[in-house]
Amino acid sequence: MKKPVLDDQEKEEINYKLQQAVQNNLPVEIKYYENKRFKTASGIIKKVNSN
After folding, report:
1. Residue 24 buriedness (CB in 10 A; 0-12 / 13-18 / 19+)
2. Tell me: the pLDDT tens digits for 1-48?
3. Nearest to residue 41, comparing CAs of 24, 20, 12, 21?
4. Secondary structure of the chain in HEC code, one letter for each residue
5. How big is the CA angle at 47 (ends 46 and 49), to the nearest 5 degrees?
6. What global pTM score does this model have?
């Protein structure tokens, strides 16, 4: 699979959702791209490193 490219609006939306999850201790499910495949992780985010 080809790695997707996010536009600025999509990045802002993801950032907002992550910040809400951190502030409210909400469980999340994150789909990410690694080694030419999509993977999924779930849990509660303690902090976000924007790098």
Report:
1. exposed
2. 788 899 999 999 998 999 999 999 999 999 999 999 999 999 999 887
3. 21
4. CCCCCCCHHHHHHHHHHHHHHHHHCCEEEEEEEECCEEEEEEEECCCCCCC
5. 150
6. 0.75
**6 touches 21 (CB < 8 A):** no
40 and 28 Cβ atoms separated by less than 8 Å? no
User: Residue 51: CA atoms inside 13 Å, Cβ hemisphere, count?
Assistant: 0
- In sequence order, the 6+-apart residues with CB closer than 8 A to the CB of 20 are 26
